[in-house]
Input
Amino acid sequence: MPNMSLNKTPAEEQAPLVRNKNFLEVSLGYTPEQAIEEARRCLNCKNKPCVAGCPVNIHIPEFIAKVAEGDFKAAYEVISDTNALPCVSGRVCPQENQCEERCVRGIKGEAVAIGRLERFVADWYMKNVSAMPEKPQSNGIKVAVVGSGPAGLTCASDLAKRGYQVTIFEAFHTAGGVLVYGIPEFRLPKAIVQSEVDKLKALGVDLQLDVVVGRTITIDELMEEGYKAVFVGSGAGLPMFMGIPGESLAGVYSANEYLTRVNLMKAYLPDHDTPLKRSKSVAVVGGGNVAMDAARCAKRMGAEKVYLLYRRDEEEMPARREEVNHAKEEEIDFRLLCNPVRILGDEKGKVCQIECVRMRLQAPDESGRRSPKEVVGSNFFLPVDAVIMALGTSPNPLIRSTTPGLETNRKGCLVVNEDTMRTTREGIYAGGDAVTGAATVILAMGAGKKAAQAMDEYLSGK
Ligand code: FAD
Ligand code: SF4
Ligand code: SF4
Output
């Protein structure tokens, strides 16, 4: 008999006012008993609507059935058939808009907690079984991967498993892309990402860190060195600013810079001397996941007050509902329908206030979105000593500008054939945020996988 409870089996979490002072993981995940209880909520639907909602089409009912039987190893094997990083996706996937949105149990009650089950299975496997993969027999063909985010890691892994001699070139001193420099430790522990990188090394992938492709070496030079194909997974790390007065004052950060200092350069650890001012009162501008991460990090870095300034209302916020709720529980002060117009500095050129104006939402336009309009004369000031801009990012133009023949669209994203992920240059493939603009981890992984398949066909002449 299935478990007909209308609600998901809850997972333990750190209490909000405890966790907003540490960087330990917020959700503690399922115990085996809780996982089995939740797995029994799945109806094993014949038409599997949940699978169609997953960008990498994990065989969801099959893996959940194995969890219900208590055979967690078999459940892992089902997941890893289509997903190389379940420890990551089980934690950060926007499940509510993907697999769980399609789950029939969500029609009357809550969807099956597919993401939590995936995380449980991946964590269980890592703790109880995880063995390093064996290095496959090399076919001697050299392939380069630019960037070690989820797109690059997945592409490199799939190519290495097929015998290619893969080298990843990464600009930072640590591999993982946004998984290590953007998403904070309390949502995705970095040891998990490192263990995935270690598996790649075991497969024989060579990791060249601190190499900026386009500066240290160009793609054409790589090809001259004997690389037969290149995958570009360089992400979308170029931050946007508002263009308002005061953005160059000391104490104004892009979310990318702030999060990199906190996460990658470990500013929160006492034995790291990363330069990052401890602020008392911080304004974070934006309403997406990046804004939530920046605000929650600022709180954990000791700020007494963290304002979240967003020009629309809560319903329109692009951030995941879970992240919004977590941020509110952690005492982030949401100031909605509010837009900054100026940042003010003190006599030393340091941020001391932010001037905002109230906004009103207008009637929906043809696209159904309600655009915000300034309420004239509604200006007000907030006392802050740091401002973090989380307004979105776009791909860095470096690779395009140093690789003749690579075409980009008007947003600066690389143009690819969607079936093969091949760019406008033969032998050069691309995927992830570099192609879509800022998107999701699972889409980047899916693109890396698709590109590896097409590169194999190209290189082997199949
Ligand atoms: P990236 O992860 O950006 O990796 C690109 C890598 O390429 C980087 O390591 C970069 O240093 C390297 N690189 C760039 N240029 C060069 C060069 N010229 N030479 C060598 N290396 C280069 N998605 C979710 O699904 N769920 C979430 O909860 C979520 N939260 C997020 C929170 C934050 C703060 C941010 C910033 C993003 C978040 N995302 C989330 C989005 C997600 O992380 C990205 O969509 C995903 O990481 C894109 O993967 P990628 O491999 O294309 O690029
Ligand atoms: Fe759902 Fe993401 Fe897992 Fe797919 S990868 S089943 S969308 S949590
Ligand atoms: Fe199980 Fe929901 Fe998928 Fe049906 S839709 S198989 S109940 S997870």
User: Anything to note?
Assistant: The chain has a mean pLDDT of 95. Residues 133 and 283 are 45 Å apart (CA to CA). Residues 54, 56, 58, 60, 83, 89-90, 93, 95, 98-99, 114-115, 118, 442 surround iron/sulfur cluster (ligand 2) (CB under 6 Å).
